Amino acid sequence: MSDSGVPAIALSIGDPNGIGPEIAVKAAAVLGREGRLHPVLVGDPAAIRACARRFASGYRLREAGWPDAPAAHTLDVVPVHALPEADYRPGEVSAAAGAATVEYLAAAVALTRAHPVHGIVACPHSETAVNAAGIAFSGYPGLLARLTGTAEEGVFLMLVGGGLRIVHATLHLALREALARLTPDRVEAAGVAAAGALQAMGLDSPRLAVLGINPHAGENGLFGSEDAEITSPAVARLRQRGITAEGPFGADTALAAAEFDAYIAMYHDQGHVPVKLLAGRTASALAVGAGVLFASVGHGTGFDIAGRGVADPAAVLRAARLLASGTAPAGRPGA
Question: Residue 322: its pLDDT value, please?
């Protein structure tokens, strides 16, 4: 919080050669006008200045300090000099931009530790660019785990959109490997992370549903014993922790009813398909379990439109508002 009592949100600009700087600046201007959040841009000043000139011409840039309050027609910036100006080339995939992406998030995480920053919204990254820089990278959750000193198996992805919040017990793995990694401990940890994140966003007593591994959650052994061995014990353990958890349920019927605050999916497609079907590119992606409120957008870097001025900041705005008010329903499309 700043002195004004407005929650501060760090906007990490993502890959500087993608649409990240543009949508971050556009979103910061909108949030500043609304006055309910205090956006703080984190990234290279050259990229931010270039976008501010085009997309926030009535705003001045100010190096952020605490306890600075938001100021009218002002965009606060935490400068991170990670990209040589010669490598700022919108639309180009480069190792230099990939390395800078990581530096921006590291600075944003440091910001949350040093100052009262409510959470982080990270603009799109390029896995190709980051790996080209020699940095092992498969997405923001794993990087966030390393930056916060959290075991990677303790940080989980929560997709939000279409009226659903879904946490994934496993993520980017071949299905066979994902099923092999499922244990009561892992499902329990996903539930603990989900409950903690929802409480941090203002939902005091979240209700969780654990989805079954097999069709109909195994139907009493008719479709396999995995749910009796893995998901049912995990539900019992979550209840012992005082977390309101139910299941395991067949995923199709549980998600169609949409009666719970969050759902624990067992593998990538079980969670991604319903959210992406209902919400498409408006979905938000949260990393939960690292002790930092963190969200990214549900779309890519848009290298093909970078620098053209046509990128839509809607997903950044949705993610920032989500972090600030987790009790609000995600909303069905068209609602």
Answer: 86
Question: Domain tally for the chain?
Answer: 2
**Does residue 332 belong to any structural domain of this protein?**
no
Q: Could you tell me if 147 and 2 lie in one domain? A: yes
Domain that holds residue 200: 156-279
Is residue 328, in this structure, part of any structural domain at all? no
**Together in a domain, 8 and 139:** yes
Q: What is the pTM of this model?
A: 0.83
Q: Please report whether residue 310 resides in a domain.
A: yes
What pLDDT sits at residue 261? 96
Q: CATH number of the domain that 41 lies in?
A: 3.40.718.10
Residues 178 and 34 in one domain: no
| pLDDT reported for residue 329 | 35
**Residue 296 pairs with which residues in a beta bridge?**
122, 285
Q: Does 10 lie in the same domain as 141?
A: yes
- Residues 6 or more apart whose Cβ sits within 8 Å of residue 6: 35, 36, 37, 38, 69, 70
Between CA 225 and CA 231 the distance in angstroms is 10
The candidate with the shortest Cα–Cα distance to 190, out of 146, 159, 148, 215, is 159
List per-block mean pLDDT (blocks of 10 residues) for the chain, which spans 335 residues: 74 98 97 94 96 94 86 95 94 97 97 93 95 90 91 90 94 92 97 92 92 94 94 98 97 93 97 91 86 88 95 93 60 31
